[in-house]
Design goal:
The protein is α+β, with helices and mostly antiparallel strands. It has helices spanning 60-67, 119-126, 147-153, 164-169, 175-182; strands at residues 7-8, 18-22, 35-42, 45-50, 82-84, 88-98, 107-108, 113-116, 134-144, 157-161. It has one domain (7-189): VC0467-like (3-Layer(aba) Sandwich). Strands 1, 2, 3, 4, 5, 6, 7, 8, 9 and 10 form a 10-stranded mixed β-sheet that branches. The longest helix has 8 residues, at 60-67.
Length: 197
């Protein structure tokens, strides 16, 4: 782990470090009941990682094999899920992890969360020197300048606080419901028709 200070992304009106929760009205199957951890959000656009859709066709062991990483330390690679982070750059891998793990290329989203996308970060995981908590994600969701802001105005997404327990410990298929419950929202009361009160 490097002592260099990682880049920090959070700005005043930024949603970086927050969650986007798909409303029932969303028509894109790729984002149905999506929980997206926001890594960056500014006037140039936004980037997030969907954290609740597991990829069944690829395991973390296959990801590691493709990188050529070898290690004498045997960790249980089957315990690490591979998540589908979104439709952009589907072959690009990211570690969304607890904030104590910092390397020179880590993007520190907040004190609690960092994002690393290097082979060195994966090597640290395999060697048992990785973050205390993490998710491995392939691909990401992206928005052009102003696009996410328009979608928020159209009530496509709810914004929720991210907690390490929700991100790292809640089962993937329960994260959407758990995030809504943390906001005091009854799923049965959500309308599939967007609108403003």
């Amino acid at each position: 782990m490097s002592e260099e200070t990682p880049k920090k992304t959070q700005k005043n009106n930024s949603l970086a470090g927050k969650l986007l929760l798909a409303m029932p009205s969303i028509t894109d199957d790729r984002f149905e009941r999506a929980v997206i951890f926001m890594c960056a959000h500014d006037d140039k656009g936004a980037m997030g990682l969907r954290v609740n859709h597991m990829m069944s066709e690829i395991g973390f062991d296959k990801v590691i094999a493709q990188t050529g990483i070898k290690s004498d330390i045997a960790i249980d690679l089957d315990d690490i899920d591979v998540l589908d982070g979104g439709p952009v750059e589907g072959a690009r891998g990211f570690l969304l992890h607890s904030g104590e793990f910092r390397q020179k290329d880590t993007i520190l989203v907040s004190d609690d969360y960092g994002v690393s996308g290097t082979v060195d970060a994966l090597r640290n995981v395999v060697e048992g020197n990785g973050p205390g908590q993490m998710l491995f994600v392939l691909g990401h969701a992206g928005w052009s300048a102003g696009q996410l802001d328009r979608e928020l105005q159209q009530n496509t997404w709810l914004v929720a606080d991210a907690t390490p327990d929700l991100i790292f410990n809640t089962p993937n298929d329960k994260k959407w419901e758990a995030a809504l419950a943390s906001m005091g929202i009854d799923i049965a009361m959500l309308s599939a028709t967007p609108g403003n009160a």
